[in-house]
Structures are given as C-alpha cells and as structure tokens.
C-alpha cells in the first residue's frame, strides 16, 4: 500500500515533506481543513511514508461492509450520542493501545471558523502524548509534518502560537476562503 499511495500522490501532483512520527503514540494536527479531500490526501501521505494514522469517526459508520473499510483506513469508533464524552473515549484509546497516531483538525469543521477547538490539547495532556503539526497546503500541493509542538497548560495561548505558525508558513486550504488564522 505504501508504494501505491506514493504513486497516487505523485499522480495527483502532491509533494511530500515529512516523516513518520517516531513516538508510538501522538496527535498529528492537520491544518487547514477546508475539504473532505484533506482526509484522502493525508491518508495517502502518511501511508506513503510507511505510517498508519487514525482518525476519530462516529460509531454509526462502523456497519458492515462500510465499517471494514473505515477501520482499514484508521477509523477509531467514537460514541457522539448525548452524554458521551469524546475526550475520555480518545484518552482511553491512547491508554489501551500500543500504537496510536491520531490525526485531528482543531478547526472541527470545513467551514470558516476563528475559534479552534481545544479538544486535541486536552486529550494530549490527559493521555500524556506529544503533538506534531501537519499541513496540507493546496497552493503548491505540499503535504507536511513539521516539528513537535510543545504544549503549555494554556490551551488558548498554544492555539494562538499554532495559528501564528501556520500564518507564517502561508498555508492554503483547498478552499482558501474557509481557512483563517485570525484569533
């Protein structure tokens, strides 16, 4: 699958800038999230490097035969019903697995949004896992994993630092009007 993924990325015009995260458990931030294609491109990217990333998917998608493919592509079932705590469920997955590279988008939607969600921060702190910054830049079509991002105890300050990082890189979404690094 690694060679097929690399071939498909090249066929689609994407360049790769990154590595498989060395720690067995981490959160990889994916920004900007403006299109459903972001998942496909990031899946091909990490697979082409020889990695296996996971994403949180509502449990309703795990029915036969769709569930088989969702799991194969790294889907981790999450109960989003009333009263369910997604953060606790994600932390549980980190605590009970030997390997988990969880890809998350702090925007939480493909629509333009100023206020990024801090769930990734809470999960990383509770599960004691590092966070790496990643990007899918639709301008030059470069997908990257950057450096490890050191978290503080101030989630909002960390999100501001992340936004500054992405602004400085000039990252563009597939639909640029749906991505902002404003506070």
Automatic annotation (TrEMBL):
Coiled coil: none annotated. The keyword Cell inner membrane does not apply. Residues 27-136 form the Phospholipid/glycerol acyltransferase domain. InterPro entries: Plipid/glycerol_acylTrfase. SMART domains: PlsC. One of its GO terms (molecular function) is 1-acylglycerol-3-phosphate O-acyltransferase activity. This is Acyltransferase. It comes from the Bacteria. GO terms for biological process: phosphatidic acid biosynthetic process. It comes from Tangfeifania diversioriginum. The keyword Cytoplasm does not apply. Keywords: Acyltransferase, Transferase.
């Amino acid at each position: 699958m690694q060679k097929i993924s690399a071939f498909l990325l090249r066929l689609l015009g994407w360049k790769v800038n990154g590595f498989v995260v060395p720690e067995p458990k981490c959160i990889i931030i994916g920004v900007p999230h403006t299109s459903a294609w972001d998942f496909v491109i990031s899946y091909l990217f990490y697979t082409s490097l020889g990695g296996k990333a996971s994403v949180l998917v509502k449990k309703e998608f795990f029915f036969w035969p769709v569930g088989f493919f969702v799991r194969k592509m790294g889907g981790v079932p999450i109960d989003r019903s009333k009263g369910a705590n997604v953060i606790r469920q994600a932390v549980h997955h980190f605590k009970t697995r030997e390997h988990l590279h969880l890809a998350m988008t702090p925007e939480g939607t493909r629509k333009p949004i100023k206020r990024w969600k801090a769930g990734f921060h809470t999960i990383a702190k509770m599960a004691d896992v590092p966070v790496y910054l990643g990007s899918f830049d639709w301008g030059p079509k470069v997908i990257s994993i950057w450096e490890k991002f050191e978290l503080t105890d101030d989630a909002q300050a960390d999100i501001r630092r992340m936004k500054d990082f992405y602004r400085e890189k000039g990252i563009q979404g597939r639909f640029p009007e749906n991505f902002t690094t404003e506070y």
